[in-house]
Design brief:
Elements lengths: L22 H8 L4 H15 L5 H75 L4 H8 L4 E11 L11 H4 L10 H13 L4 E4 L2 E2 L6 E4 L2 E4 L2 E3 L3 E6 L2 H10 L1 H13 L2 E12 L14 H15 L1
Antiparallel strand pairs: 1-7, 1-8, 2-3, 2-7, 4-5, 5-6
Helix pairs in contact: 3-4, 6-8
Length: 306
């Protein structure tokens, strides 16, 4: 009797789920709560079970809460109590600052008054002890105001002074070629002196033989006082001759080169009358031989000739 060969074919496949192609969505629906959240929820449940259940434990917990609330309340009350004290101290400090500021201003006014008095006494000394040339000495020293014909020279930065341009001024350390520098004003003032100016002032600051024109950053200082452009230079002298001589001089040509090459603006005019103030800080120095020194010198001379 023949036997049927064993059937080695694979068992019939199970019918596929309709949502088999949406395994991710199915997984999300079957596990709506993340494992981490589930673990945290279980931990909170376990902690809840460890809450005190006995009356004594609950009393200790309530006492701790009451103590914490008491500490917070006392802190708030203390802050309210100390707030007026802090405000009072702050007001006292403000009052002290205002008082000291007023005292400083009074001292500055006193210093200005004393400086003016000293200047007036120095000018008086020049007039009284200067002899026939007292007026000339006071004029040359800048101790007195001066008024007369002269010239007015205005020097100002270029309109585009914020832009660099290269050239010898920049290679010499000038970061901005269109700005007037201290050495420019030095040459202008020296050129006016050499051209015959009798007295000079820059922006109302009288120049003397001891005046210095320096730079502090981008600012120009005259006797340690900062000036701002435009720089107005007033010079007393023979206006026509002073203007012509200065423009033909080397320093006048230097100023012309600055105007042509770097855009620095200049304007010179002859004035029928200009008024220059006295120098604010005048120092008068005189030297006279003492009687003892004179006698010693004459004695020495006698011994040498004997």
């Amino acid at each position: 009797m023949s036997q049927q060969p064993p059937d080695r074919s694979s068992p019939p496949a199970r019918p596929a789920r309709p949502d088999a192609s949406m395994s991710l969505l199915t997984n999300v629906m079957d596990h709506s709560l993340d494992d981490g959240y589930a673990e945290a929820a279980a931990r909170r449940a376990a902690d809840g079970e460890r809450l005190p259940k006995t009356l004594r434990a609950k009393l200790w917990l309530a006492g701790g809460l009451v103590l914490a609330a008491l500490v917070v309340t006392l802190g708030a009350a203390q802050a309210q109590v100390t707030a007026p004290v802090v405000a009072k101290e702050r007001q006292e400090l403000i009052d002290r600052i205002e008082t000291e500021t007023a005292a400083t201003e009074d001292l500055e006014d006193s210093v200005d008054a004393l400086r003016e008095d000293v200047g007036e006494r120095q000018r008086e000394a020049l007039r009284n002890h200067g002899g026939d040339q007292g007026g000339l000495v006071g004029l040359l020293a800048g101790a007195t105001e001066v008024e007369g014909p002269g010239v007015k020279l205005v020097v100002d930065d270029a309109e585009d002074s914020d832009s660099g341009g290269g050239g010898p001024r920049e290679s010499s350390g000038f970061s901005d070629t269109g700005r007037v520098r201290d050495r420019d004003m030095q040459r202008v003032v020296n050129g006016l002196w050499e051209s015959g100016a009798e007295a000079i002032a820059i922006n109302g600051q009288r120049l003397t033989a001891l005046s210095a024109i320096r730079a502090a950053g981008d600012a120009i200082l005259v006797d340690n006082k900062p000036l701002v452009p435009p720089y107005t230079v007033l010079a007393v002298g023979d206006g026509q001759r002073l203007s012509r001589t200065f423009q033909d001089s080397v320093d006048g040509q230097y100023l012309h080169v600055l105007q042509e090459n770097y855009g620095i603006r200049t304007r010179i005019s002859t004035e029928a009358g200009v008024r220059l103030p006295a120098a604010p800080s005048l120092i008068v120095r005189t030297a006279e031989p003492t009687a003892g020194a004179a006698e010693k010198g004459s004695a020495g001379t006698g011994e040498g000739t004997s």
